[in-house]
Design brief:
By secondary structure, the chain is an alpha/beta fold. The protein contains 13 helices and 18 strands.
């Protein structure tokens, strides 16, 4: 750790490995360009003036608004004053092309599956009838999304997920040990536009979940409609993703011994509040996960994805606006929200539906022990008690670790009503 001294602030130890705050132009190199002669630097605590760069130990002495800090060079960036590119250059490194390829495939894969289904249904003979049988099986007999999925380790460890991870990059941080003799309900906040952090951290091994939490088998949960898409449902099941319905949750948690679920609690409604540098959570009225924890004796684990809301810009839609009212009506009818977002493109950095290359730091908090309680003994007051405890844990986790991400340092966490 690097000891940083602040005027008026108690000394704090900073782990240099925790920082990955690079502008897009520096992401591929992964650090500071020491050939640049710029006095202004960007640190996790805001902009500062570079006073000294010690070549002996790589420490940078930076003057900040509240005092002098001694930081590892990997934790800050020199401010790039060159004009930002609009179009991607032709000589983009191969590793960055692979990262973009991974995101494009992930985003369009459901549409590929739908296109393949239509194509096969237009064939004659045995292929057509085989597809009819498959679709009938999905509609009438498919049960694996509610029975723990069909998890395949090799699918979770595919190289494409590491390319996906490095696109942003996404990092998983552990703050406490999790015992393997019980089950857990992880709650991910915020939802963001597409919950990139929840997917890559808990549906793949790209960030080393099984290494950080050995003995814990976590299933990311999603809407049942995703499993109705032919072929796409098998892909989700192979990643260990399951239906977010009560039957599915009870089945997984009843196994105990580390079998756990990850729920993006804010859901579709929270995506409408996914604006950069904000953390407005839809949580106050959501108590079903607490009741499920009481039924199964599962500990609650808060998880915050710092930077999840930063990877897309969203058209302003304040509560009460005509746009927000229309989005809410569509959400109630369709089951999912349609935020109006702007990201970047494959060949340009200005407009498109790909997320921006901005870091996401996912921090897993300490578990909240919840006693197993018979259904007839679960009262509203008991549910509210543990719900309040969970909200307080989310607040504490946010305040303790928001310095992980530059845009979160001065942010406040808020809670919206359903």
């Amino acid at each position: 750790g690097i000891n940083a001294e602040y005027m008026g602030i108690e000394n704090k130890t900073i782990e240099a490995s925790n920082f990955a705050f690079c502008e897009e132009s520096k992401m591929a190199e992964g650090g500071v360009d020491h050939t640049l002669d710029r006095a202004t630097v960007l640190t996790p605590y805001g902009k500062g003036t570079l006073l000294e760069e010690r070549s002996s130990d790589g420490i940078l002495v930076v003057q900040l608004s509240f005092g002098v800090a001694y930081l590892n060079s990997a934790s800050i960036n020199h401010e790039d004053k060159t004009p930002k590119r609009t179009w991607a250059p032709l000589n983009v490194p191969l590793q960055r092309r692979r990262q973009t390829f991974a995101l494009v495939v992930w985003i369009i894969f459901p549409w590929i599956c739908l296109a393949a289904t239509i194509f096969l249904l237009r064939q004659n003979g045995i292929i057509f009838y085989a597809m009819l049988l498959y679709l009938s099986w999905i509609a009438l007999f498919q049960s694996y999304p509610r029975r723990g999925g069909c998890r395949q380790k090799w699918v979770r460890e595919l190289a494409i997920w590491s390319w996906f991870r490095d696109y942003f990059p996404i990092t998983l941080h552990k703050t406490a040990e999790l015992k393997t003799d019980q089950s857990y309900i992880f709650g991910y906040h915020p939802h963001g536009i597409i919950s990139m952090g929840a997917f890559i951290n808990f549906a793949t091994e790209a960030t080393g979940f099984s290494r950080l939490f050995p003995g814990i088998t976590c299933h990311l949960l999603t809407l049942a409609t995703n499993f109705r898409i032919p072929f796409y449902g098998f892909y989700l099941g192979a990643l260990g993703v399951c239906d977010v319905g009560a039957e599915s949750i009870r089945h997984i948690l009843s196994k105990g011994n580390g079998n756990s679920v990850m729920i993006v609690i804010g859901g579709a409604k929270e995506s409408l509040d996914a604006h950069p540098s904000t953390y407005q959570l839809t949580l106050r009225e959501r108590r079903g996960f607490v009741r499920m924890a009481l039924e199964n004796g599962s500990s609650l684990v808060p998880v915050i994805g710092f930077g999840e809301n930063d990877i897309f810009d969203q058209v302003a839609n304040p509560p009460g606006s005509k746009l927000r009212l229309l989005q809410r009506k569509m959400q109630k009818k369709l089951g999912f929200a349609i935020p109006l977002v702007k990201g970047r493109g494959i060949f340009n950095y200005y407009f498109g539906l790909l997320p921006q290359r901005k870091p996401i730091h996912t921090v897993v908090g300490k578990p909240i022990a919840v006693p197993k309680t018979p259904s007839n003994a679960i009262t509203p007051d008991l549910v509210q008690r543990y719900h309040n405890e969970y909200i307080n844990a989310v607040k504490d986790l946010f305040e303790q670790y928001k310095w992980f991400h530059p845009s979160s340092i001065h942010a406040e966490i808020g809670f919206s009503e359903d």
